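Session log. Operator J.P. requested a structure for one protein chain; no other inputs attached. Running the standard single-chain path with C-alpha cell output.
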Amino acid sequence: MQRVIKLNLINETSSVFRRSLSIGRTASFQSFNVQDQEDFQKRVLNVSTPVLVDFHAKWCGPCKTLGPRLEALAAEKLDKFHLAKVDIDNVPELAEEYNVTAVPSVIAIKGGKVEGSFVGVLDDDKLRAFVNKLIGE
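Structure written below.
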C-alpha cells in the first residue's frame, strides 16, 4: 500500500499532520504550542479528544529526545489524541498550576481532567502503554 504524507501549516504555532492512504481516507493528528492559559483552556481542557501535554524547555536535553518521540507516536495513532506543547519558560503559570517541578513532564488530560502523568523520558514500551491507556487501547 502506498502512503503519502503531507504537512499543512495552519499557523506558526499549530500544525496538523495529514496522512492520506491509498484507500482514499484522510486521518490527522494535531500538535500545537500552547500560548497562554486561555489557549490551554480552549485547546486542552475544553475538547473531547484526549490530550498529551508535554511540558518542556528549550534548554532541556531530554526534552529534545522526548518531543520527537511523542510526535511520532501521535502520527502513528492519528486522530486519537492531540499533543499540546508547553514551554515552561513562556507559560510558567501553567507549569506551576500543574505542579511541574522538572522537565520533561507529560500530563494526560481527558475530558478536562488529569488522567495520568510522568516525569523524564520513558522507554518506547512504557511510552506506548501510557498513550494506549489514555486512548483506551
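Operator note: The radius of gyration is 15 Å.
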